[in-house]
Every structure is written in structure tokens, then in C-alpha cells.
Amino acid sequence: MPASPRDLRLDFFRGLALILIFVDHIPENILAYFTLQEIAPYDAAEVFIFISGFTAALVYGRAFEASGAFYATAQILRRVWQLYVAHIFLFVMFIAEVSYTVMTVNNPMYNEEMRIGRFLSEPHLAIIHGLLLQFQPAFLDILPLYIVLLLVFPLILLGFRMSVPAVLTGALALYAAVQATGLSMPAYPPGRSWFFNPLAWQFLFAIGAALGYGQVRGRAWTARSRALLPAAVVIVASATAIKMSWTLHGLWEPFPALFVKELWPISKSDLSPLRLIPFLSLVLIVATLVPRDTRFVGSAASQQLILLGRHSLEVFCLGILLSALGHFILAEIDSGIAMQFAVNAAGVLAMWLTAAIADWYKRMGRASPSPRPAAIEIGERREIGG
Fold first, then answer.
1. What gap in Å lies between CA 325 and CA 25, rounded to an integer?
2. CA dist., res. 146 & res. 155, Å (int)
3. Helices then strands, each counted (H, E), the chain
4. What pLDDT score does 173 carry?
5. For 74, phi and psi rounded to 5 degrees?
6. Which residue ranges of the chain lie beneath pLDDT 70?
7. Residues 290, 159: Cα–Cα separation, whole Å
């Protein structure tokens, strides 16, 4: 099966989501008032998981169709292992960063705020539960979700091969069970649950994967979506107006918070339908009005976001560490507007440089090395005892 050109829209929105996640993770960050979480009932987490499902179906769905289930499963498990190693590395670095800050500024409150207190009181248990993905300090909860979702993805692909509607029906049934009963996965310390409940978020991942798999099978869906476009626009506009009224009410109390008594709280952990439906409406609008060959992805600014999205794992891990560092700088040194802009700008720049370096190494790796004479290889092998 010939490879299709890369859909740059996916990299663009994933890169944008990475910046939004970085900004949102810095408490009391003035720029966070301009991100999705303050103007809509959903945020960058939905963007990240939806695109992850869509991309997984594109990449591994093609491998499944071209080389079979065994090869596709092996590739998926290889990626799961890469994600797991990255998460453990990030876990250790994050705890070291927070612990060092606590000791340096003598502020033990950060232990509880960043949810690493149990590691300091019982590290032997915390490490084991960290390796099991059950111990999730602050900011370290979305990558375990993605690992679990990708781990079961071979079964989803097998189900798609037989019937995509049947898989989505099963995913919807599990999602509905979570909403009705509060079903969740246990975490550490005892009594806690995963912040991103995989039993709920699997539905969004499955929807993204189903749409991606449809593209692999050559089934266009954007044309059929135009009939739903007016309803999607109304839903997104209404949800945005309601959430912005809540944000403005928080900034200026006399401003009325629309329907806050009727709708609050909107669970992020269990992916409330009040988050899911407006987000899927936004997806429909974007997919319908922003075609694959749209011109804006070719602009200089868009290319920088695409660069971030193309190296999402490296950028995400660095962004988590930078978010915590930015929080400590603002809390302990200066929280003024100028410092906030400087922290945000420095963080985004560091993320971009990381993506640029990763991209350079990737391009260098693709370059074919010039062939060397066989006599030189034989000589080198003899020198090392080969």
C-alpha cells in the first residue's frame, strides 16, 4: 500500500496542543486565560488524545493492512515501550526537580502541590507504583493514559477490520458505564483513581482512531459531515459562550456565570459529555472547513508548530519539566507580568529548539552514509577482535 502524504494538519494542531499544555500547567499564568481551558469546556488534552488516536490508526492501520496483524502489533508494542521508557525518565527527572526545589527554597508545600509527598515518605512503594503507572505526580498523568490506550490498540485494529461500528458501540457502552457508575482505575496512594480515567478517555481515542482508519481504507467522511455543520457550530458557540461567562465571572464577580448551577462541575477525569460533545463538534467544523491541502499550514508560523508536532514526545517531556520550573520561578522569584511573559517565551523557545535539534538528527539519520571499502571494514574488525 503506497504511503499517503503526511497530513500536516495533525502535526500543526498537535504542536499547538503541546504549547497549550505547557502554558496551562503553569499556575497563575496570565497566558492561560487565552487557552482552550478558559474559553471552552474542553482543553488541549482532548486535542492530544484525539490526534493520537487518529495518527495511530493512520500509521499502524497502514502497517496492519500492508503487512498483517503480527507486524502491526510488533510496531505498536515497540512504540509503547518507547513511551514507557520516556515516562519513567520523565518521572525521575520531575521528582528530582521538585525535590531539589523544595530543599533549595525550604518550601515543603511543593511536595503536596506536585503530588510527590508519598515518594519522600515511602520511596520503595512509590517507585514500584510509578513503574506500574499508578503513581502519577502532577503533570505526569496524560502519558500513562496514552500508554494504556496504545497498549490495547492492536485489539482495536483487529476489531476495526471486522466492524468499525461494533468497536465504537463497545467503546460507547464502556464510556456510558463510567458516566453512570463512576467506574475508574485505582491509582496510588490508596483511595485515589487515575486523573485521566482510561475507561472514559478510550472513547475519544477510539473515535479518532475510527476516523483515521477510515482514511486508511479510503473512506472520506468530511463530505458527509457538512449536513451536521450548522448543529456543530451552534453547539461550539453555545459552549464557548457559557465557559467564557464562567471565566469572566471568576475575574469580575458581577458578570453572570451562565448555567453554572445546572452544569457545574464538568468532570475532566471521566470526560464528561459536556466536554466531549462540544469538542467533537469542533473537530467536525475543523475537518469540514480546513481541508487537507489548506494553505495556512505552509506559512512560516505554521511550520514551526508543525515542527513541534512532528517531535511530540521529546517536546512534551521537556514541556512538563519547563512548566514546573516556570511555576517555581514565578512563585519564588517574581510573578510580575514581564516575568510571566519571559518564562512563557523562554519555555516555548526551548521546546522549539529541542524539536529543531531532533529534526536535524532525524534528517541526518536518513542520509545514506558513503560506502566504505571492504578492506577497511575487515581491518577495523581485526583491530577490535571481530
1. 10
2. 15
3. 19, 0
4. 97
5. -60, -40
6. 1-5, 220-224, 367-386
7. 30
